[in-house]
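dumping the sequnces here before i forget
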Amino acid sequence: MTNSQELKETLARISGVDVRKCMRCGKCSGTCPAYDEMEYHPHEFVYMVEKGEIEKLMASPSLYKCLSCFACVERCPRGVEPAKVVEAVRLLVIRQQGCNHMTPDQIPALLDEDLPQQAIVSAMRKYSK
Amino acid sequence: MQVNEGFKPTIVAFCCNWCSYAGADLAGTNRLQYPADVKIIRVPCSCRVNPLFILRAFQRGADGVILCGCHPGDCHYTTGNYYARRRMTLLFSMLDYLGIERERTRVEWVSAAEGVKFAATMNDFVSTVTALGENKRLEDLRCKAN
Amino acid sequence: MQRIGVFVCWCGSNIAATVDVEAVAEALSHEPGVVFSANYQYMCSEAGQNLIKDAIRDHQLTGVVICSCSPRMHEQTFRKTAAAAGLNPYMVEIANIREQCSWIHKDKAAGTEKAIILGRAAVAKVHLNAPLVAGESPVTKRALVIGGGIAGIQTALDIADAGFEVDIVEKEPTIGGKMTQLDKTFPTLDCAACILTPKMVDCAQDERIHIYAYSEVEKVEGFVGNFTVTIKKKARFVDETKCTGCGLCTEKCPQKKVPNLFNLGLDTRRAIYIPFAQAVPKVATIDADYCNMLKNGKCGVCAKVCTAGAIDYKQTDQHIEEKYGAIVVATGYNPIKLDSFEEYAYAQSPDVVTSLEFERLTNAAGPTGGTLLRPSDGKHPHTIVFVQCVGSRDTSGCGKPYCSKICCMYTAKHAMLTRDKYPDTEVYVFYIDVRTPGKNFDEFYRRAVEEYGVHYIKGMVGKVAPQADGTLMVQASDLISNEQLHISADMVVLAAAIEPDKSARPLATMLTASMDTNDFFTEAHPKLRPVESPTAGIFLSGACQGPKDIPETVAQAGAAASKVIGLLSKNKLTGNPCVARSDEMLCNGCSSCEKVCPYGAISYEDKEFRMPNRTVAIRRVAKVNPAVCQGCGACTVACPSGAMDLLGFSNRQIMAEVDAICK
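..and the predicted 3d for all of it:
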């Protein structure tokens, strides 16, 4: 089995998403609030995972631009759940030793009074294992 | 579930002509696979199935019997599936009394459009019955000797 | 002992690929009573049928077993074959070794073994078959069409044209259906009213057509050729025979604030109304929810102004019972409710409209007199965004999993007409796929792009946000240029998915006609019997069977009509001989069977029986009316003494099948 095939299966296991359900309507990207920040957009995430180009995604900073707002999950007419794909790719990266995007001790410096608790928890989950 | 590998159960499926038999045909047309252990008997309506037929099947060595009819409210004969449901409820409680595992019998509603459901139901039923193993409780050993 | 012939069909490679047909024929030839066994490439072909006929004659067969496709496919074919060779058609049994064997198994050994067992069960059953003769029943030469849209109208006109009487039942006050609300029709841009209203008038004028407008079907009894239907004629509070349709009452009624449903609530009407100028029948109707007179007895203006004296505040619902030979379902469709799509701001902004509402906004008879104006401020929109597939192809649970089929074309029509009438308007269409399979359909769509300059963008709108300045901010993706667009629009038009009318589900239950999971009526065969329901005597016309445009609906309506005409032109129908029969020697007259019979086919009679010592005893025994019995078999199981049995599916036959399978 090729590496990309292996990655694809791991990703499917982590995310629980069947990317073949996508009908390429682009509603996820139409709804994404972080669209302009991202190199690869939500619909591309799904499409590239289907094509097996997961390594490209793993190298992309787009991973950390996704807000995990789940708007794409909410709006997808086919129930594909693109945000879970993004999350899964992120996990593929940070599950490798030493690949944390950020360590917990870096977070206090970035803390903002107005930041909701939920966002901090979400950030912890996003950036470290 | 893989306790009884190699065991091929005998399963009798009673299907009503209007919904479930058509659903089984649709499963076939769509090439949805399910084990060959299932043998279908066509009846005009689920209410044609006399509880005695099910007992007879067990007596003759069937390991599972499934009855499929139209969804409640959709019976071609208006009320047949309701009769079937009541009769089977009674029969099942008697089977309980006889000590036959409850999982060996089942009533399912499958419409003519539900080929997928038919195949899925059969796959599930076969694996359940396979796990239970051979039906020995009601088998008429005199039948077997012949 | 029967003399049985077994015929195993290869069905080309459909069966032969996974079932060893020769082994099946060989194995079955050793079954008791089997005197002939053969296999052939296509049993249903003429050569195959001749093989069966010759064998019946040459081997004096008394029973035939055919191992082939589903009996639902070719049972009739082979019964006719047997009859042609002089054998009773009910001496034929089919073992389904295609749909229920070869197509679902890949392993040839298992497939072959199963095919043999299925064949054995059929042989065991044939041993107990007896020749059956079908009874006959008369045909009521009158048809009922449920739904008075273009589908129902066309079906009724075609049936009436052949000389039969037809009744149309329409739940709205006028016939015409959705097509009356449309402005133009694709791809020719004919005016919908101009082609529909003459047909409505034809219906009204044809003496063989009777229209029950503002009526609903309440009860259906009987069977093919002999339906008895109860129709509820809802109270209009206006005497249809007296009302001239002058419309004076609709001008004088003081209750002005009733949402006009014909214009989808985009404007208001009075409490007494005629839906639109060309309504058929052109009769006023009082909306009881809004009429002051009916609500609190204070008003009566319409009765005062009516010179014909047609107003009748005391009118009540009427129940009419009619007999029919055939019933056509033409209940049509509705756009889905958009409540679960809050991202499109349909509920927040009046300028976000559905395509049907847009249709009314461009219709000369609509609320704006045909000038396209924004519902919010009555100004001309300069940027319009069309969103396709709103709720169609949606498996997330908010919408419908199927393609609604008509949206691509009507959106192209709307976009094109907007650009034609208002060239200063920018028109964007967001699409997932543009589906244009139809005569001149793709050309039409391309014209919208190439000649009229409509901007087609592959992508989906993710969000519509109403802004403080009254515009709508549309956020969407453009998948081809891979960017996110932000368009400031004046109007957004949503191509809502279509779904079967809500009245269809209870109707299907009344008719015992089957439906799919989306509440579309299922056809008897998806390819070969597309306009018939699996329930005999029930026919399907139009969008109640699946999404359809007008030409397809009219074609299907004509096809349904021809099937009805074929049925009504028969004087007698051959019934199903597989009916219940009571053995009077066993019957003890307990009435258990009568109680479960859904058709009332069982009655009792006192019969004399000779008893020992020359005495005579009178006993009450059950009797089945074979013309009424539909052969469900409920009574056979209910009978405590085993006197009731079903011909063709007798207790012994089914037991024999069980035994053969379990052996």
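The radius of gyration of chain A is 15 Å.
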